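Hi P.,

Sorry for the delay on this. The queue was packed all week, but I finally got your sequence through. Input first:
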Amino acid sequence: MNINFVEILASFMVLFAIIDILGSIPIILDLQKKTGEIDSQKVTLVAFLIMLGFLYIGQPLLGLFGVDISSFAVAGSFVLFLIGIEMVLGIELFKHEGGGSNSAIVPLSFPLIAGAGSITTLLSLRAEYHTVDILIALILNMVFVYLVLRLTNFFERILGQGVLHILRKFFGIILLAIAIKLCTSSTGLTLGK
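Then the structure:
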């Protein structure tokens, strides 16, 4: 088993950009406000297990259900779209029954962290790089995700409520745009230039 540091770095950077945990901080804070304290370890572990599963058996697993990657991406984009609507309009579409740390697993672990974009990216990386290098890059990304989830209260204190309110609206619009882009690229639709 040869470890290729160039492949690890390339895989890490691609996954880091797709997961975009830093850009998700306002979304995480919004979910935390609705659900209570988020169990960083559990959310990270669930997201890691989802991505690990798709790294090794993703396409055959979806094939069992007669679902292709494009359909999976469109379904994930709808969930992200609804989260964006919540953030921009200040309404609640997702009912977080029971509160507690489990209520943030969906939509935080899936589809925000381990979403259609990151799963599709893992399957694409697998076509180019060695699986062990992608696995190492994935583990490094999950360590970073865990640290950001643990430090969300720190970010909230530094930024303050006013800035967070503005960021929540801004990132809600960004999330809507990401959802639309994911949906259109998965279905082959084009929306003007």
